[in-house]
Amino acid sequence: MAILAGLCAGEEVRFYDDRLDNIPFDESTDMVAITTDTFSARRAYQIAGIYRKKNIPVVLGGIHVSLLPEEAARYADTLVTGDAEHVWKNILSDFKNGRLLKAYHGATTNPQQNCLPERSIFKNKNYLPVSLIQFSRGCAYNCSFCSVSTFFNHKHQCRKIEDVLLEIEKSKLKTLLFVDDNMVANKEYLKVFLKELIPYKVKWASQSSVDMVKDKELLKLMADSGCVGHLIGFESININTLKWFNKSPNLRGFNNYKEVLEVLRDFGFLTWGSFMIGNDFDTIDTIESTVEFAIKNKFTLAFFHILMPYPGTAVYEQFKSENRLLYNGTWWNHPDYRYNMAAFIPRLMTPEQLTEATIKANSAFYSTSSIAKRFFDPKTHLRNLVNFWVYSRFNYVLKKTSI
Questions:
Q1: Which residues contact 225 (CB under 8 A, 6 or more apart)?
Q2: What is the domain range of residue 349?
Q3: What is the mean pLDDT of residues 56-66?
């Protein structure tokens, strides 16, 4: 949204985050733009309906709209599929001239070219003092559960290095989160960028795939440029599950992630592991073993997510063909569905058991005993004050939210 605001030169813009703000529906406005993912689609449609009843045009975009444009078209005056920044100025011009189209398609290449976000829209939102920046977009892998890969058609595109550095200068914050889907997808180009990043003396983290541990030159440049750690999709400790997920980077040299974790610890990187719970090989026992694995290996943070059948993914199509989808197959629109509930029938347990097991997994990982066991690691959590602060602060917050 900040990128689109940056393209609204000379226009009066208001930004509301429905998670934090009470949207002032009576506030005067000419046009409303809403972005949505699949989890928030039902709420986005509700908001759109309120404005449309007031005869205020609604432009609807985001990853869910690109995955299901025919559904989304019922709730908006105009749709944007793909990346909106490529067509946003056209949309504004067409609106002013009374010729707003029903649909626009933005390219998914050349991300954020010559376009800086207008971060002033985030003022007083009480967000963390972290600057969210993209080095690249998309992912070339084809994991069976991933809607991001579907959205970008299994492609990965990097921004111009000079544009990224200029954005870092403009943001003025020294703590960065690169919100890339897979920052290490183009390792050689990333190395060039990291060499340029070193003089900026920032601290940063991102989301990366496990295959980065094969490139020690890259890891050293990460450390030298201020990398604190990575969010990594480990997904499972079962090789059969990884094959079912088509998680190709995790399958290369897989040895229960022993080498991966040793290399990451040697470089002092904090590891935030993401695990997908509820696959066709999962039982209550394997879920508990996955939690034990994360605790034993002293992950800084771990997230145990229920496998979600996102529309457009291979997992969704498989479950649909097997008649295993719940909530009429459109869980995101169903009034009874709630976040972190199973939306399909697992093969080796009931949906209720899966939901309960996932809640217990997160609660167990952020229990007092688990936090204490994972804390004592001189290579990572006790390596320096920054790592110590990150570990303590985020485990404290997540412990409160996982109860």
A1: 194, 195, 197, 198, 200, 202, 204
A2: 128-402
A3: 96
